[in-house]
Design goal:
single chain; alpha/beta; TIM Barrel; 2 domains; 11 helices; 29% helix; TGT-like_sf
């Protein structure tokens, strides 16, 4: 069973160590922390040799069911799990239902199935199919099946309540099926907190999920602009207050440095690492200081403000003027440089 030891708490922010989360019980992981993001169980843009040469790689690798489900028969025949199949046998695996980079279109989940999208199209998962997939994947941490659609702000109360009810029903059924399987009964199960942007439903989801024998919690349904920043932070604060202190809290789709710090301040422990992948995919590179503590020598100087999207289109990221006007800057953040700009192009 996974064990979380909290060493320091400041406000809602937590510092600690997760231990005994491997079947051998020998691995540890500091929080706050992040997971190593993969696509089809392969770290994007990194060869295996390059990955081995990088210091400080997270001890837990994030694989996604939506990119692996169509390979179920191959993995079942292989019998050794996705970790060994993909050359990740020296790491712990966390399997989420969906890929945070590619949220599923809404409207396809039912009371009996959850739809995921693979490269071959839509797949419907029942709890039985989900557990069968997990037997083949052999992940160490498993996000339970849930009705985790990203809902637009202002979703109906009926839809939010339904997402909570369905997710709790899926959780109960999956826990029952996993407890009956010798290979899965000792796995770390992560319960999902649903409810859209309705605080009442989010709190109900948190309280009810906490009553189940789960080892951690996923604050689901927050990626992108589905909920305003203020509402998102308010919901996160309210939810983490309801969750037991001895179990870790994860969140998907939060990767910007300022957003990560805001979530840490509100009690979130673990994040995916999709942000660097998204930056790379739009032809940019991360470029910012990671010194959080203020330098005493410059403490009195005005700080560089965080720019918003509309400011970026006419601000410092557009120093070349009309020469780079054709570049789409709508998603570029203040933490990156656009390598498509002419000043970065080698002649």
């Amino acid at each position: 069973m996974m064990k979380l030891t909290i060493t320091k708490v400041t406000g809602a922010a937590r510092l600690g160590v997760i231990s005994s989360f491997a079947q051998t019980g020998e691995r540890t992981m500091e929080i706050p922390g992040c997971l190593l993001y993969t696509r089809t169980a392969s770290p994007p843009h990194l060869t295996h040799d390059t990955l081995q040469s990088i210091a400080g790689v997270p001890p837990v690798t994030h694989v996604t069911l939506s990119t692996l489900a169509e390979h179920h028969e191959v993995l079942e025949e292989y019998k050794e799990g996705i970790g060994k199949f993909a050359g990740l046998s020296d790491t712990l695996l966390y399997c989420s239902v969906n890929d945070p980079v590619s949220p599923n279109p809404p409207g396809f989940n039912t009371n009996k199935t959850v739809s995921i999208w693979s490269s071959g199209g839509r797949l419907e998962l029942t709890p039985q199919k989900f557990v069968s997939l997990q037997r083949a994947l052999k992940a160490d941490w498993i996000q339970c099946l849930c009705d985790g659609e990203v809902m637009a702000e202002g979703c109906s109360r009926k839809r939010a309540r339904k997402s909570v009810d369905r997710s709790l029903a899926f959780l109960d059924e999956c826990l029952k099926l996993m407890s009956e399987n010798e290979a899965l009964k000792q796995k770390v199960v992560i319960g999902a907190i649903e409810g859209g942007d309705l605080q009442e439903e989010r709190l109900r989801s948190a309280r009810e999920t906490a009553k189940r024998p789960v080892s951690g919690f996923l604050l689901d349904g927050f990626p992108g602009g589905s909920v305003s920043p203020e509402a998102k932070l308010s919901l996160i604060s309210a939810v983490t207050t309801e969750l037991p202190e001895e179990k870790p809290r994860l969140i998907h789709g939060i990767g910007r440095p300022d957003e990560v710090l805001e979530c840490v301040e509100r009690g979130v422990d673990l994040f995916d690492s999709t942000f660097p992948y998204e930056v790379t995919e739009r032809g940019c590179a991360l470029c910012f200081t990671y010194q959080y503590q203020t330098d005493p020598e410059t403490a009195g100087e005005p700080q560089r403000p965080v720019l918003h999207k509309e400011e970026l289109s006419n601000g410092e990221n557009n120093e070349e003027g009309t020469e780079d006007a054709e570049i789409d800057r709508s998603n570029i953040t203040p933490y990156e440089i656009c390598l498509k700009e002419k000043r970065f192009v080698c002649l």
